[in-house]
Specification:
- 83% of the residues lie in helices and 0% in strands.
- By secondary structure, the protein is mainly α.
- The protein has one domain.
Length: 135
């Protein structure tokens, strides 16, 4: 994976040395994004959604979005990095709201709603912390 990031212009030596919320979140986004794109059925089962062709398609959209958001943070600095962090925060807020609405309306089982809400909320807080540390 580091080779792929290097090929995208990411200075992975600097990424590895840097230990902050933004870098941790970005690395998690890349790993989760690639895994979700590659194995959407497994991710769906983990969060409690039934697998279908439609769900695999939607998981892959989510996966590539998260991977790109992570790579954007890892490959940038300064104001550009803060912009990527803000984009991730907006996506995480939207994901959390969608999961909560789904759970409250009954279109998602409570366990599924919780398992989708929790990582989105974690992403919001890590994104905000990372944004704050960026200055």
């Amino acid at each position: 994976m580091l080779t792929a990031l290097y090929n995208l212009g990411v200075d992975y030596d600097a990424v590895i040395k840097r230990n902050d919320a933004a870098t941790t979140l970005a690395a998690m986004r890349v790993v989760v994004g690639i895994a979700t794109w590659a194995a959407p059925g497994i991710v769906g089962k983990i969060v409690g959604l039934q697998e279908s062709g439609d769900s695999r398609y939607l998981w892959r959209i989510f996966g590539i979005r998260d991977a790109v958001l992570g790579i954007g943070v890892l490959a940038s600095q300064g104001e550009t990095r803060k912009m990527w962090l803000k984009a991730g925060i907006v996506c995480d807020i939207s994901d959390a709201m969608a999961a909560i609405v789904g759970g409250r309306s009954g279109t998602l089982p409570a366990r599924t709603s919780a398992s989708l809400t929790a990582p989105a909320v974690m992403g919001i807080f890590m994104g905000l912390a990372g944004h704050k540390l960026e200055g």
